[in-house]
Design brief:
GO terms for molecular function: ATP binding; phosphorelay sensor kinase activity. This protein has 887 residues and is of the alpha+beta class. It has 6 domains: 155 residues, Beta-Lactamase; 120 residues, no CATH class; 98 residues, Beta-Lactamase; 69 residues; 160 residues, Histidine kinase-like ATPase, C-terminal domain (Heat Shock Protein 90, 2-Layer Sandwich), CATH 3.30.565; 110 residues, 3-Layer(aba) Sandwich (Rossmann fold). It is flat, with a radius of gyration of 54 Å. Helix 1 packs antiparallel against helix 6, helix 12 runs antiparallel to helix 13 and helix 13 packs across helix 18. It contains 20 helices and 32 strands.
Amino acid sequence: MHWFPSLPPLLRGRSSFDGEDCDVSALRRYQHRVLLWGGCLLSLAIVAGVVALVLLHASGFQTRRLEGLQRTHAAVEAHLVAADAAHQRMLNMAEYAWRHRPDSDVATRLAERQRYLAGGQRMIVSAGPESAPQMVLGVGTDTWPLARLDRYLTLAHSLSVIRRLSTPQGEPDTAASGFFFDPSHQFLVLGDGLTEQRLLAATGAGHRAGLFRHLQLLSTPSAAAAPGTASDMQITLVRHPVSAAPSIAVRLSAHDKGGAIGTFVTLEPTDRLARVMAVADRGTSFVVTADGRVVAGTADATGLPLDSAMRVLRAGRQGDESVAAFRQGLRFYQALRVAGTDWLLVNTYCVGDIAQDGRRLYAVAAVLGGGLLLGLWTLLAWLHWRVFGPALARAARVYQGEQLSRSLIQLSPVGLCLIDRSEARPVLQNELMRHYAAAAERSGVPLYLQLVQLASEHESGTGVFQAPVEFELPVPANDKSPGRQLLVGAVGATYQGRSVLLCALRDLSARVELEQQQAQARQAAEAASRAKGIFLATMSHEIRTPLHGILGHLELLGRSALDEDQQARLRRINQSADSLLQIINDVLDFSRAEAGQLELQAETFEPIALLERVAVLFSPLAEAKGLVMDLSVDAAVPAQVEGPQARIEQVLRNLVSNAVKFTLSGRIALRVRVDVQGEALLLQMEVADSGIGLSPSQLERLFQPYVQADASIISRFGGSGLGLSLCRELCLRMGGEIHARSTPAVGSVFTFAVPVGRVAGAAPRPLAGRSVVLASAAAGWSDELSRRLQVWGAQVQVIEDPALLAQHDVDAATPLVLFERGPARELPVLGEDSRCVVRVSADGPLRAQRRGCTWRVSCYSGESLLQALLAPARPGQRLLAVGQGLD
């Protein structure tokens, strides 16, 4: 028999030490290869991870550069649009001024013309301190018709104002540095910053006519000019005529009724656009014209092959508005067309920029990757010397223990076997297993086949194969051996390439016989319990019938003429009979609950009305003992719910009855609230008292039938011990629960919760739109009465001290409510003779009673309070409800 089926056959020889050494060496070589190749693969994975991190960073850098290009593109277009808007405003105002020239007298026009001609067709014009001074120059304008000359001189005056007005406050003055030419190029108006002397010195022209020809080149449209965003507007890159700095020239043609007025030329330095680009993005970007000239940029373009890049970009775009990108060597380019022009916004970066941006990330990745490689090979070395080496040494010792294991199996008190699943025959087994198999064969049971079939059925039932299963196998008795009940533990395995079943069998015959005896004893006890229940129910029913007759005759006897002693004895007899009837009813209900025959009839009811009914029922008993009974209703409690109202009220009555019975002084509080659990409602009712309390040991057996807290309870308070156990059974049957918490000599709190259904419909608000003043010194009843009034829709003003009622400014038409804990005492209420006061107290009548101007109602009857508030007032009077708490 072999015990280690996973080892090669050479390792199982009893004395084949050479085979053992060979197999151990093979395992050692296999372990070396696994560690080496595994370390290499993990190292490659680490290096690949570092490379992937670098590539991800490069991709992210490219994305950020593209986002920067888009931000810069938006900023450039916004700048150009703002400049075009200023230019268009200037053009519109100039055309308007031309068409609607200001009226001036003949003398003014004559003086302006003479001053212009006297200055050698040169004059400085300004419309005021807020206008921009303009220099007017002319060549051959002295031969013009006087009306034409006067009109252009008037336009020059208007331009001094227009150049200021065309640029809103806070925006750069894009039109200040520029000039205006008439269509014949004989009349020139120079903007602020341009003078004849500076232009002659900068251009090298020797006379004014040469200067006009030089400026005419700037004002004449050319094929290289780019169309602007507005009509009759062209944009080109030029040198400033004075500073020779690169400038953006914008040409605008003014017209009047189809005829040309002249040409406006504005010059904007490109450094403004460069500053806009630098603010939008800190990368390297340029605005480049169609012929490869740099309009503006955030860096020096020297050495960058932008002209060749422009050719490649334009060759691949063909008017496309999307981002164009290409690589030239180790430099990358991204480009977008500037709307309204033939310019391109080009963003460029190189591999060095990527490395500079990710230098910290690359350093961290290198350190982390190197650390992981070092840690990996350190771990592999540790595994080689400290784990696998000792493990192989232990494996060698395993071979030596195989023979010992075989001996132990033979001595095992459990039947062990290894069965071939395909052939249902034993491969290995001990002596006890052979004994079980022989006995089964004599009884006609093929034991091995049965074990394989039952194990397969259990594995199919669980859905887990080659997992341990456990089942019982009965073996019938025969002539030579008694019957047996075998407990089988089986697990699937693989042995020498075959699917096998490893089984362990134990004889459970003695235990099965004991269990049968216990089951018979349990059935006998249950039968006795059922008989007891039937007997109690039958006897209770038989006793209740004549008891009703006794109660009826006692009631008739109470109506006859009896003296005081006879009435007292009759009351004691009635109390005893009522107590006996309650015990009988509890016994019957408890028997029905145990038998599962308890009826639960669902109906729609009002939880608050149920609470008030129970309070009204027990309030006389509480008052007779000097106890205070309070009610508290949570604001979330719905007006109506659906559930077994009768059983809920029965549980609440039992709890309140116990509270009144076991409370000698103090107070009893009845509370109700709801717990929303998804779509379901859980109605929770609570009874708290200041009675004798219970110890932890008494709480443990509190809900057991026929059990009191201690032996003195029966003698002191009486009772059968069935009330709380019946409450527990009722709560369980309703799908709820009940529990208690208590402190000896302090009091107890009993809480039960049952599920109820929702009832559609909104609660009525009969007092909607009315105001009520509530005066009560009892905080609990002040909250409860305030809640009732607010639920009915009233607006409530609470006065905590009724004695100070006269100090409050209470409208005579506003109802007032008075709560009285003890005997009523008169309060100074102004106008009481002309008002009706509703006095609410614990000993008040259940139905509202009116005496003169005063109503009296019970605090446990919300319906009576509402009846008093809705009762019609006398002519000329309003209803008054005053709440005063007297503790």
